[in-house]
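Exercise 7. Given the encoded structure of a 150-residue chain, write a plausible sequence.
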């Protein structure tokens, strides 16, 4: 008597479930990592934006006959820091925050304070993050990157 073997092609239900489970685990790890990378990138942009504005403020200060910083309390719009820095005179382009309301400026003739809301507990350059206070325009967050003139 001759035995005939039937060849089965395809996957069993268990094999499919195992493959789908592995794909789900790998994709969830990838999405979490991607999300964290986006947060770090946005925080790095905020930090670089404030440093660029601080440099523009130094140039502005040095170009004024009275050696004064802009006495403003708003970031953009009419009668704001943006109108004083007057792109492209002191800065090529006024930075736009990744989300509205993330930046604040508070300045007087002798001092200034720049702040940005951050999403992480530490700044991208590894520096500590402080709580925002009234000098930072009252940003409603406990994670804030702050720059002020020395």
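Solution.
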């Amino acid at each position: 008597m001759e035995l005939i073997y039937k060849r089965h092609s395809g996957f069993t239900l268990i094999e499919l479930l195992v493959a789908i489970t592995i794909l789900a685990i790998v994709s969830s790890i990838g999405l979490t990592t991607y999300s964290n990378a986006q947060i770090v990138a946005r925080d790095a942009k905020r930090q670089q934006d404030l440093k660029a504005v601080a440099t523009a403020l130094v140039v502005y200060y040095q170009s004024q006959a009275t050696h004064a910083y802009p006495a403003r309390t708003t970031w953009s719009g009419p009668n704001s820091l943006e109108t004083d820095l007057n792109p492209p005179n002191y800065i090529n382009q006024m930075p736009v925050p990744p989300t509205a309301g993330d930046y604040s400026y508070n300045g007087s003739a002798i001092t200034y304070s720049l702040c940005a809301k951050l999403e992480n507990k530490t700044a991208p350059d590894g520096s500590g993050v402080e709580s925002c206070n009234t000098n930072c325009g009252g940003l409603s967050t406990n994670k804030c990157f702050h720059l002020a003139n020395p």
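Remark. The chain has a mean pLDDT of 81. Students should compare their own answers with the one above.
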